[in-house]
């Protein structure tokens, strides 16, 4: 290449120091390089010189003359328009004659570049061992098969949820009953002589609200770990490829699956990730359906409550709820595409990387940063909101049933009743607008827990499984959180599209909640 090259393995931080040293040497001038550049094919070099003669006194700074000459031979429209305005009429006339007589120059330029690429490849590239490619090919016979690949993807998601419940739920229950509830009991005893409002603020508002969210942490860590592992071994490109057919049903392609998959972590980067989509209608449609992807916070709510309502069947119920949200996403996408974008289709091309061993360092950093972000949110936004919710549940008379929160709940109670939800569950849904975890924080404030009984068990003793299933269904499909709404507004630059997204999700979530509640009730749940 004729430039400094530093071997680097980013996932292991190998070569980073050497890279920085070489950067410093280059900036200081201690290292000088003469880059090896492609050359135009020999039979057109004289033509390139003729073009350079006509433009050499008229090329605006800071463009190099030879670069402008090459672009003119290539037929670059922007450079051609610039030089048409800069050249005198006689030079422009001679230049146009040269270009017209050599309209095949673009092929000569491309040929020179490909010759250069071929030389570099022969010298520098070492092809992977045949065995490595064969292993990838054998795995991809299953992972990228049009039908079997979908089963593989569904199976992988099922394993993820099974691991979550098998490992995360016991830890979550222990934290709920043995840590948070006991801390609440100790705080209550310590504040026995304090004013009722102060005791309620600390025990119910801070510990009850934020504490309920902190019990999510084991579940979140397992989610982050498993999805980070899938990302690092190279499976996610296969998932995008397999989902291409489903994406086409909505007028999208597999590339849309990549930002949508980010939604399993958080809907905010999912919406921002749509920038990789070339088609404007495809990008807009992906933005509108991205909030239907169940994010970690929503799945955390499911993982928190499903075991209490459904016991050993919790993993199966959770898998079904996630599948339902994806089906709703596809159906909504099809309807929106046909109504708003007239069924427009777009093509999809992507590279399949080789499978490789995961890096413990990379996955560990991912889990650490996402867990720290979750704890930061719990200690700031959710703490502040928990205090506000507690204040609304306490004032003006110091009891829940006559509080401002109860009045708000009663206002929306008729709609909640269609889905089998009382005013408390309805309020929990409404408070999830700021952050989806707030629904659990709100329930923790309103119901609290004792040292012997956690919040999830308390809710299961009050509500039927049919009500629990309806609540979980609506929680997965409810309007996006405030941060996602803000990003949708930013990326679409339109309040119209943003409000359309909110309206569609509100309508779909309420309809799904009504349907699920009545079906579950009919089945005797």
Layout of secondary structure:
Layout lengths: L15 H13 L16 H11 L9 H10 L2 H10 L2 H13 L3 H20 L5 H14 L4 H43 L5 H19 L2 H17 L1 H8 L1 H6 L7 H6 L4 H6 L7 H10 L6 H15 L3 H27 L19 H20 L1 H14 L9 H15 L4 H9 L6 H10 L7 H8 L2 H13 L4 H11 L2 H28 L3
Helix pairs in contact: 2-3, 2-5, 8-9, 8-10, 8-17, 9-19, 9-22, 10-18, 15-17, 16-17, 16-23, 16-24, 18-19, 19-22, 20-21, 21-22, 24-26, 25-26
Describe what you observe in this structure:
The mean pLDDT is 83. Helices cover 72% and strands 0% of the residues. Helix 8 (148-190) runs antiparallel to helix 10 (217-233). The protein is mainly alpha-helical and 525 residues long. The longest helix is centred in the N-terminal third of the chain and has 43 residues, at 148-190. The protein has helices spanning 16-28, 45-55, 65-74, 77-86, 89-101, 105-124, 130-143, 148-190, 196-214, 217-233, 235-242, 244-249, 257-262, 267-272, 280-289, 296-310, 314-340, 360-379, 381-394, 404-418, 423-431, 438-447, 455-462, 465-477, 482-492, 495-522.
